[in-house]
Amino acid sequence: MTADPLLTFFLPAALGIIMLGLGLSLTLADFARVVKFPKPVLIGLACQLLLLPLACFFLAKAFGLAPALAVGLMLLAASPGGTTANLYSHLAHGDVALNITLTAVNSVIAILTMPLIVNLSLMYFMADDQAIPLQFAKVVQVFAIVLGPVAIGMWLRSRFPGFAERMQRPVKIVSALFLLLIILLAVAKDWRTFVDYAPSVGGAALAFNLLSMAVGYCVPRLLKLNLRQAIAIAMEIGIHNGTLAIALALSPALLNNPTMAIPAAIYSLIMFITAALFGLWVNRVHGAELAEPAPGR
User: For the stretch 143-157, what's the b/e string if a residue is b when 16 or more beta carbons lie within 10 angstroms of its beta carbon?
Assistant: First the structure.
């Protein structure tokens, strides 16, 4: 069977540009900040890497999702935060530096955690003959797809800071357009499944999104992080890198299963609306506190 050039060329190129844009916004200091301010970073990572996959698993069971859709939702849960979380956190008066650090660190950790979570999900939800384990060679491919462009972006920022600054906005616009195109591609590749399962997948995606933001906000508050840090973590784990999840699901070299892309496609449409509503709510309830100068870190 001839490989679809749209999948073999467009998806990696689109994801590469999106991850390059992420790299243009990062510096080595964003990673060093973990050592300097470990508590909020560790709490955010614990929510992202431990609590979310667990919550997602029980939601997939509760909604009775078809096996491929359940794996797709777990794939989304394993994906790192999206770069748009930084923008939403800024608009909601969150701690944007924390967002950037979490995005940077989680993008690296996800290279190991995503294959692990997807493998476990495939073994649990799908029959043995349907499982497509992410073997070492495929882990290396994911590593190259995700971290290669990020490293190039970081290098460009370190060597040509003015150019990197000028390119951030156009790259973000192009990234948003690519995200929309990738969502449309994911839906078009498995339109019948999308129509048949949209209500249940939509309900599961919405429930997972609301739960993600609730965990991201409430757990840090319970652990005595300040309000801006809680907002940042809520945005970080509520806005997933849906593009990465869709690309891995559709890629002929990786999962090659359009059905698995549907939860991420639906979630990617929902998350921007709920994130905006969350930002409006938290600023309405805590407007006076957020109007004060940000506390020193």
Answer: eebbbebbeebbebb
